Amino acid sequence: MEHILDIETKRCRIRQFKESDADELYLILSNPKVMEYIEEPFTLESTKEFLNKNALSYPPRVFALEYKENKKLIGHIIFHKYDKESYEIGFILNQNYWGCGIANEVTKSLIDYAKNKNIHSLIIECDKRQLATQKIAKNNNFKLISCEKLLVYELVL
Q: Is the CB of residue 102 less than 8 Å from the CB of residue 54?
């Protein structure tokens, strides 16, 4: 079963991407600090390709994260099948919204969503230097299951 997310958290809405989100997403994905442990910063062209391949296609692998107060796109949420039983979750946030608990808020809402949909487990992958993501994984009771190239955390629901 494929999932199309439309989730409200206290401060955010997780929704499907629209083509018109490309410019705002580019501002986030082109920031070297945001992309430091992920991959090279995106160009506008690569942002549009990323959207077409991962968000505007079916099933979507990423979803828009909108800040409800100002309706601004502040990042994207990763939510897609990881293997037969589990889904990968993740987040990339505009640097201006770091450190105020949004990633943790979103993670908790994805855990609730997955429990309600009888998903077996959730996976978070991150770089070994990505301390904020590791902290969120641990705070939400994810267990470290692999640390070869990337750290892989799993939460069995």
A: no
